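Annex B, item 7. Sequence and structure tokens for protein A, then protein B.
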Amino acid sequence: MDFSPFDSRYFDDPYPLYKRLRDQDTLHYSQQDKVFCVTRYDEVRDVFKRPDLFSSRGGFASLLMQSWDRVGPRDLIEMLRFLVRTRINPLKFRGAPKSIITADPPDHAPLRQIVNRGFTARRIAAWESRIRELSEGYISGLADSEPFDVVAELAYPLPMMIISEMLGVETERLADFRRWSNGAINLQTSGTRAPSPAANLANAGELLQYVRSVVERRRREPCDDLISVMIDPAHGEPLDTEAVMLFALVLLVAGNETTTNSVGNTVDMLLRNPALLDTVAQNPSLIPALIEESVRLESPLRLMPRQAVEDTMIRNTPIPKGSNLVVMIGSANRDERAIENPECVDLRRDTGRHLAFGFGIHFCLGASLARLEARVILETLIPRLQGRELRAGGGVRTDSYFTRGFDRLELARIASAVAA
């Protein structure tokens, strides 16, 4: 079977092909990309469970190379500007930069322990009132404006505002954060329709330069924010500046993308299933179960990269040392071998089995925050969705092999509702 996980042709509706891969390929190997595609639930879970055997750092280092086959002279010039702007020593970060999502044991545990300081259950729960305040404010425009873009006017700005306030960065620069974070994620994860990396490098460089300036200010003048906590020796071993920069980048980009995508995907699901919308509108206590089913069916992250650190086997297929793998979360979460009637929304389903937030030591640090944000947003939004529909041409999927979501999701009033 001819399949590349990085091919934009499969982005809009990949699920029929995922099923063929699960059913027909023992373990698909993409000759074009030189990568094994792990598609079944049990194997995906097993790879996540074995960080000693399947390296996250090695996988991301390989993934970082995917976009560089389009590099030209302008990109090389922009790379030099990036290094000057961010003051990053490239020799220090050979391969993938060490961060919470790329670190392998034994580096991962102490790094996770440090950043966990800002993600305790108490700290996360304390944000609910602020999330609800913002949600009500953003959604207030839904009754008056036509159309209403769920992504641009709600699902993107709210989690970005929360992350910004948690980190202690300037919330007045949300427009810059969006441009910077889009550039950072597009730098490595855009599809085959994407341009060369230069423009995205510029945006990523500006973001890291800005975060460095905030870190340096917090060293001089600590505040009650997450960056201050991570660099304060009173809380334990502090992170160095480069590590904090990378962690802030992960939060501003990957953390924000998870909530944005899950909210957009859930709203799209509800608008395409009016009976489901009616059910949760009448019984809001089902919203947490709806979120779990949504992130299972439309996983906000399509895949994660890994690299074999020694010769091994997956599903009776030899995996030589150094082989690159993509662990296809979006496929595993629809594997009928592990999940009954996986194509259906079942609000009574056991929500503990899906892999949308990963598994094992790299389970998503911000999962509880993403769930809280999505729940509060949907509690506020769902009563206003009835009488709305997706505007013709208003749903534009994100062009990314890494994420599954919407760049634009415009709602309009149903014609009969307007006439009434």
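Protein B:
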Amino acid sequence: MEQILNFINNHWDLFTALIVILVLLFASTLLDAIRGIKQIGPAEATNLINHQDAIVIDVREDKEFAGGHIINSLHIPMAKVQSKLAELSKYKTSPVIVSCRSGARSNSICGMLRKNGFENVANLKGGVIAWQNASMPLNKK
């Protein structure tokens, strides 16, 4: 215990940075929970797609999407999602998985969808990168 206190005393700047990072991580997770956004991995996404007919909305740009996307995903670039809400309204009660490259853009779109009445929205945690790392297939057509 004394060593820990000595470390904190000698390296208060590093300890403060650690505390700030932990608070930010906790706050982000708590905020997503409050907003009703689930963070799911590739395995859970596959389960939702196969067993609950979840729709996948890919919010990446055209070039990114053309480089490989989740099979049967609906491509709507992030900047166009707001204007496509009327078309997407038929999925308000269906499971919706939003994906992007890393999960950051899709997380903000999940918040937008929740605010617009979508009941079952999930963010693909880690995005298409996580999907690829899990050895899941991508469609390049």
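Comment on protein B: Helices lie at 2-10, 12-35, 42-52, 62-66, 85-88, 104-115, 127-133.
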